[in-house]
Amino acid sequence: MIPISVMPPKEKVSAWVQRLHTFGPRYTGSAAHKASIQFFADEFAKLGDKQHFTKWEAED
Q1: Which domain of life is it from (predicted)?
Q2: What is the pTM of this model?
Q3: Using an 8 Å Cβ cutoff, are 6 and 34 in contact?
């Protein structure tokens, strides 16, 4: 969890939302979905968060 003391300003969060829209539809497992996950992992890491995203794939 990111401590409140290092939370980005609202302008940064707004920029993240705008960036998220550039990925287009983010259907599970799609390239856009994977890119959005990586984007947030990178942004959270810049804030000092060592978040681990558990990846899984649904089976038929």
Answers
A1: Bacteria
A2: 0.69
A3: no
Contact 51, 41 (CB under 8 A): yes
> For the residues of the chain, what is the DSSP string, one character each?
---GGGPPPHHHHHHHHHHHHHT----TTSHHHHHHHHHHHHHHHHTT----PPP-----
**Sorting pLDDT into bands at 50, 70 and 90, what band is 1?**
low
CB of 33 within 8 A of CB of 26?
A: yes
CA distance 30 to 56: 13
Whether 37 and 51 have beta carbons less than 8 Å apart is answered as no
